[in-house]
Specification:
alpha+beta, 6-stranded antiparallel sheet, 2 helices
């Protein structure tokens, strides 16, 4: 599965911890705050989320983009120490 993580850390210590975790999981930095991995399993992603959660505080924000999740794009966000997940579905055709 393709996974992209976008970081917005609240401080230098959080930033270093998050970068260290992503590097350990084999993520590659593709932009200033964007890291990508093309071969992550669902189980490994679950473990990554736990590790990221333990390294963040209330002021850190991150987004995880995953594809495919049941054939769709999933966006998971950690903000103010709470996880939220959104699955994007294609638009339905309107009736003419």
């Amino acid at each position: 599965m393709f996974v992209s993580v976008v970081l917005d850390p609240g401080g230098v210590d959080s930033s270093r911890a998050l970068v260290s975790i992503l590097s350990q999981y084999g993520f590659v930095k593709v932009q200033r705050a964007c890291w990508e991995h093309t071969g992550l399993t669902e189980k490994r992603l679950h473990t990554l989320k736990k590790d990221l959660d333990s390294a963040t505080d209330y002021y850190d924000t991150l987004r995880i983009y995953q594809y495919p999740v049941e054939g769709l794009l999933a966006i998971t966000e950690l903000q103010k120490k709470k996880w939220k997940r959104c699955i994007l579905r294609p638009p339905t055709e309107s009736l003419k």
